[in-house]
Write a structure and sequence with these properties.
Layout: E1 3-7, H1 14-22, E2 26-30, E3 44-46, H2 53-63, E4 67-69, H3 74-87, H4 94-101, H5 103-112, E5 120-123, H6 126-132, E6 140-144, E7 154-156, H7 162-171, E8 178-182, E9 192-199, E10 202-214, E11 218-227, H8 233-250, E12 255-263, E13 269-275, H9 283-291, H10 295-303, E14 321-327, E15 333-340, H11 342-345, E16 348-353, E17 360-361, E18 372-378, H12 381-389, E19 395-401
Parallel strand pairs: 1-2, 1-4, 2-3
Antiparallel strand pairs: 5-8, 6-7, 6-8, 9-10, 9-12, 10-11, 11-14, 12-13, 14-18, 15-17, 15-19, 16-18
Helix pairs in contact: 1-10, 2-3, 3-4, 4-5
Amino acid sequence: MKKILFLGGSIQQLPVIRYAKEKGYYIILCDYLPDNPGIPFSQEYHCVSTDNKEAVLKVAKDNHIDGIIGYISDAAALTAAYVANKLDLPSNPFESVLTLVQKDLFRKFLKKNGFHCPKAESYKTVEEAKKGLEQFNFPLMVKPIDSSGSKGISRIDSIEECEGAFKNAAFHSKSKEVIIEEYIERSHDYQIGGDVFVKDGKLEFCGFLNCHRNTEVNPYVPVGKSYPILINQEKVEIVCEELNRILKLLDIKYGALNLEVLLGKNDKVYFIEIGPRNGGNLIPEFLKAITGIDFIKATVETALGNHEEMSFNFIPPKEGYYSTYTIHSLKKGKLVNINFSDEIKEKIIYKVIYKDKGDEIDIFNSGNKAIGFIFIKFDSLEEQRYKMHNMGRYINVQVEEEIYV
């Protein structure tokens, strides 16, 4: 029986663990939260932080594992690459994964190799950042160099906003380091997102999706994705060509990548982020629902070296416009109810809710504050665009706000 080590057992990491369980693999789980829902699915559990590379390496050595996965988590993906490289298991180079995970290293890589890249600089203190702002043109984006899920990201339009934005970003950074970069004006309605899969160093399948945001809460936190991608084939091919060049330079051979790509002025391609792992918010499940491509299966089998198990025979859907939407709240408090109007209820093809009535929920200002997800099939592009832009009219999340006396 092959042994596979999973890093993290949160509710969104359950699908990949369930797949391995169904295949009869021996599941070992590392997670510092002893009540996470993935633990009952494992044969062996270790209360170890997935950030602790040496502790995870010891677990891997002691158990003579055959593969390791850091699913939907940048930090876990980095640890997985570290352990896999040490034990000569299927993976990508640790230094390359580090470059993708750490925003300052990624920006330097892009600039060095001639990719379009915003002017950017990283800082350790507010004072350094304020001095450095003299070389930038506003507006600017302020981000932690090493966090995911859109945590700690904000836009500033003046130097007066720098201190608050810097402190917010530093709070969400493990290293307490912040990157500031010039804001990129989009030439396209939507940022490009989704997952791609790499085999033998080349793109095997591209699951490009349109990214949707909710400006009422945080305009930089994804609130949904939609398909088909609304850019022409010529632009898709340019994105793929540039991405293949990145894969070659970083020697990325196998696995899923989660993308955020922006088309700037004159349709210049900007890679905002390339996560060395599957996307969160059920992107792999959504892609399987609309394309038939099983990213979860491909991820597990690749980690075990079973490359022959992968199949990417994709036939585009002949009809329908598909979206995924994150159920979320604009308020903090206790969940009272979630009401779906008939106009949207009849369009839902899949629904999962993580919270029960009475549970505490938070304001949706980062990706880990989701209440649940729905997959939707619309009849027309016009219906899809209108309803995705006005989902608050069709879904009402009722919250009893906390009152402080």
